Amino acid sequence: MQIAVLLFDRFTALDAVGPYEVLAHLPGAHLVFVGERPGPVRTEVGSLALTADAALSEVDNPDVVVVPGGPGQRHHMGEGPIRDWLRAVDITSTWTASVCTGSLLLAAAGLLTGRRATTHWLAHDQLAPLGTVPVAQRVVTDGKYITASGVSAGIDMAFTLAGRIAGDAVAQAIQLAHEYDPQPPYQAGSPERAPREVLAAVRSRKDFILSRG
Amino acid sequence: MQIAVLLFDRFTALDAVGPYEVLAHLPGAHLVFVGERPGPVRTEVGSLALTADAALSEVDNPDVVVVPGGPGQRHHMGEGPIRDWLRAVDITSTWTASVCTGSLLLAAAGLLTGRRATTHWLAHDQLAPLGTVPVAQRVVTDGKYITASGVSAGIDMAFTLAGRIAGDAVAQAIQLAHEYDPQPPYQAGSPERAPREVLAAVRSRKDFILSRG
């Protein structure tokens, strides 16, 4: 089972590494990080690069596709090699998954038309214009498409996907091995739960957060 | 504020990327990934490499040090450049942090002697022989030392640290921007909560999980 994780300049690291950390431990899984060209690909912060071990053309038949989000996503919404690749691999994939604004890439490629999907809460209003039915939920499954909300939601998405692929016991064993028993020291992780002034502060930086200038 | 994240061969990616994703967004923070030599450093899974942008010798005065765990950790428990570096940078660091079995590296370097600390639940029995007071808690703070339990606990550790460094409002804003409102689809993330047969299965693979053979 080949699982391809897409990388592009100015992606968000945890969007990709959260799912990798879960899915790489599925029995028989072979993960591959893929980019427009092999080599280091920088996150939007700039101080971290992950290595793309394969070019898009080298990965033409993955079983599972994982698409992260991040500010660089907006440069691949139109025609181009990433859109072409997403359309091509989706034809034969068993699962096509996204995290955060990665779902906007899938939607822009026409893969989520009429389907239920989610994305980062700050980008939710971008789903409907792309023909997608927006759902304000942490993880949304519609057929073989599974989309996660912002950044850290990719971990919850991956455990859901792990259970669907390999069964509950395998997913639970991976969860225990990764000690995924979250205990956030603050309860500010959603617009509903965040203190009002924190919500206002983050909203006021919406453009910066989504595009990093 | 320079924040150095240590990389070594066969580290666990989420141990490093979880804290990076939080701490990189602190105002004024400059993250740097550091390794024995600059270049790609592979995780224990092998299908992912993160780039070390600096050699140990180039980062001699970080404000915050973050030490991930992973199977490769056991090769740095004795004399060597990583132990030397940990001891040297700890002299002037404001915070020295670890995730998962990263605390065993700190303990082996003599930095946690007599201090309260935690690690991955499967490695907890290794703390006391290294002179550390083991605490079965997700995040443990003792002076400037902050240690996290297994893998995903680094995210909770980093939010705790973010609050201590920059205040609650900043930490909460980062939490909201990362939509860190975990909703695991399974409740198997700790030995206490996991189904008995899942716990037994993971325990039986303890050596593999900690050392990957």
* Largest inter-chain contact set: A-B, 68 and 67 residues
Total strands of chain A? 11
Residue share in β-strands of chain A: 15-25%
The class by helix and strand makeup of chain A works out as: alpha/beta
**What multimeric state do the chains show?**
homodimer
Helix percentage range of chain A: 25-40%
Rg of chain A from C-alpha positions? 16 Å
Query: What composes the largest sheet of chain A?
Result: 7 strands, mixed
Low-pLDDT residue intervals, each spanning 5 or more residues of chain A? none
Overall outline of chain A = globular
- What is the mean predicted local confidence, pLDDT of chain A? 96
Distance between the termini of chain A: 38 Å
Number of helices of chain A: 7
Give the strand order of the largest sheet of chain A, numbering strands 1, 2, ... along the chain.
5-2-1-6-7-11-10
Order of helices and strands of chain A: EHEEEEEHEHEEEEHHHH
Structure notes:
- The structure is a homodimer of 213-residue chains.
- Chain A has seven helices and eleven strands.
- With 213 residues, chain A is an alpha/beta fold.
- In chain A, strands 5-2-1-6-7-11-10 form a seven-stranded mixed sheet, sandwiched between helices. A two-stranded antiparallel ribbon of chain A has the order 3-4. A two-stranded parallel ribbon of chain A has the order 8-9.
- The termini of chain A are far apart.
Give short descriptive properties of this protein.
two-stranded antiparallel ribbon; alpha/beta; 7-stranded mixed sheet; homodimer; 213 residues
